[in-house]
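Lab manual, section 2.4: Encoding a predicted structure.

Procedure: take the sequence of the chain (231 residues), apply the prediction step described in section 2.3, and record the output as C-alpha cells. A sample record is shown.
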Amino acid sequence: MENQNIKITIIIAVFNGEEYIENTINSVLNQKKEIDLIIIDGASQDKTVEIISKYKSKLHRFISEKDEGIYDAFNKGWNLADSNSFILYLGVGDQLKELPSDDKFTKADIIYGRVILNENTIFNSKIGFKLKLGNTLHHQALLVKKSLHPTSPFDKQFNLYADFDFNQRLYKQNFKFIYDDEFLSYALPGGVSAVFDEQQSLKIVKKNYGVLFSVFAVIYYRLQNLKNLLM
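Recorded output:
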C-alpha cells in the first residue's frame, strides 16, 4: 500500500458528553494526517448534538439516534467506514495525541501504541501470551484494517469488554501486529469498564481459548491483584 493511499477512520461514540466531546473532536481534527471522522451519538439529551453540529462540515458521517450502548455505536461507525481504511475508535473524553508514522501502515494489519491513563501512568500495550488471559491492548491506541473484519466486529453480549473479545479474535488469526512508540492517545478515567468485571472477562477467555485458559486467567487475575496490593 502506497503512503498516499493510507486511509484512517476514527469513530467517536458519545452519549450526553457535552463536557468532553469538543476536546475529543479537536484532538482528531488537529492531527496532520487526513482522517475520516465518524461520530455516532446515542440521541443525547444535553448540548452534545449542538456542539457536534459546529463541526459537521469536517465530519465524514454523523448519526444521532438511540442505540444499545457503546459497542452498538462502534459497530455502526465501523460499518460506515471505507473498506480500505484503518479504524480507531474513541469514547467521549478520550483524545488522540499522535498517530503512527506512515511506514507502519504499509507493513501492519494492526498498529498499537501507548495510552495515557492519568498524570502518572502510561499503558504500554503488548502482544503475546498474556492477551489470551486479559486485555493487553487499549482501543484508544489501536488501528485495525477494516478488511480484516468487514462487518460489525463487536459482540454486543459483552457490554463491557467487547473490544477485548475482538482483540483476542484478531490475535488468534495471526494477523500482523506492529507497535509504534509514537502512537499515543489519552483515555478518560472512569467509564463503564472502570471496575473490573472478572466474570465477563473469563467468559470471553473461555469463548476464545477454552476452559483451561479460563483457569489460567483466574490465576493471572489473582496474581495481578496481589501485585497491586503490594505496590
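Check your result against the sample. DSSP finds seven helices and nine strands in the chain.
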